[in-house]
Every structure is written in C-alpha cells, then in structure tokens.
Amino acid sequence: MAKKKKNGDELMKQALEDEHKIRKAFKDKDWAEIKSSDSWVIFKVMAEFVEGFEKLAKIGPCVTIFGSARVKAGHPYYKVAEETAYQLVQHGYGVITGGGPGIMEAGNKGANRAGGKSVGLNIFLPFEQKGNSYIDPDKLITFDYFFVRKVMFVKYSQGFIVMPGGFGTMDELSEALTLIQTKKIGRFPIVLVGKKYWAGLVDWIRKVLVAEAMINEEDMTLFNLVDTPEDAVKVIDDFYARYLLSPNF
What we know:
By secondary structure, the chain is an alpha/beta fold. It has 2 domains: 2-45; 59-240, Rossmann fold, CATH 3.40.50.450. Helix content is 52%, strand content 12%. The chain has 8 helices and 7 strands; from the N terminus they run H-H-E-H-E-H-E-E-H-E-H-E-H-E-H. Helix 7 links the parallel strand 6 (190-193) and strand 7. The chain is globular and about 55 Å long.
C-alpha cells in the first residue's frame, strides 16, 4: 500500500513538473530575457563543439556502437555488443559509444579488453545515463546538447553498428540514414545487428515507406542486417576495402 502511494506521489510530482515546463515554454519574455538567455546558450554550444573537435580530431578510424542503456550485463545483446567491439579493435578500429550503461558499456568494455581506443560521448540526463568505467579517461566527453553530440558521432565515425535499442537508438539510426540519403555526408556503412529484433521495422519500411513512395527502393541498401559480430565487422571491412579511412566531413 505504501509503495503504491509513493509511486502515485512520484507520478503526481512528475506531472506537475511537466505542466510547469509547458507553461514556461509559452510564457512571454521581454527582450532583455531573450537576449541574455539565448546569448549564454550560444556560448555553451560553442564550448561543446570546441571540446569535441579538440578531443576527437586525432582519434583515428572509429566505429560507433549504438544500443539500449537498459540492457544488463549477461544479456545476449550485451555479449554480442562486447564481442563486436573486441573484433573491431582487432581489425584496426577504435570504438565510440554514447558513454552510458547497457549496450554502450558493452561496446566500451570490448574495446578496452582488446586494448583499443574506447571513446564515450556521454550526455547529462535525469535518468539512466552516467559514464561507464571502460572509457579511456582522456576520451570521455559529456554533453548538454543532443545535437552537438550527434555531430560528433557522425563526424568521427567510419561506420554505425546499431544494436537493439529504444527511441534514442532509433533517433541516431534515422539521423544517419537521412544525412546519407540527402547526400549531406558521404556514405558510410550502417549495420543493424539482430535480424529478429529489427525485422518488424525493416518490413514496415519496405511495405509502407517504399510501397507508398516515401523513400526509393534503393534506399533499402543504405543499411545492412546481420546477426553476428563477425558479420557486422565484415560489412565494415568490405566497405572500406575500397576507400581510405577519414572523417566524414
């Protein structure tokens, strides 16, 4: 009974906080407030870009591993992510992750175990996210802004390996596909790991987006679908057998 009351109180508190944020967003601001607030945001954004560029400029070829922060050590997805990262290092790549727990931790752990570069692009969140212990100390960056963090993923990754995940993982996947499709960046390999997990999404893309001409049939070739670490790494290797490794823009 006490537990239910506590949960109810927490939900009420969250609802009030959400309402306050919504009302605040619609509040009229005078010119002084706008100028002061927005000016400081510009400087904070600039500072994050500068730190990211300076720390990541010389990391060399890396592959980013995305996936859920909620997966626990010992889960099959965790093991696959760790082994994939381990094999990437053995093939000459460093590993970048979102720096948090779950799949991200597994990716950094695999890179660390193989003695390779282990990069973490962390972000401040009210839940889930804190830097994991397998990131190289000089390669941990914590961001306030998602969009700055996204630029770093795309700019310094030679490929994306997308493990099972939620909205955040889907966001990074769709961002990369959009940038490549619209030719805002050069093409790089995108690998979805877990055929069963991703089958529903891929089927929907084909049966709805392609069928209704929202995307082209050839856009289905912008990503690969595999099940094993060996196959994921092979996609990356095969792609770059034809190209020199360099940042994407």
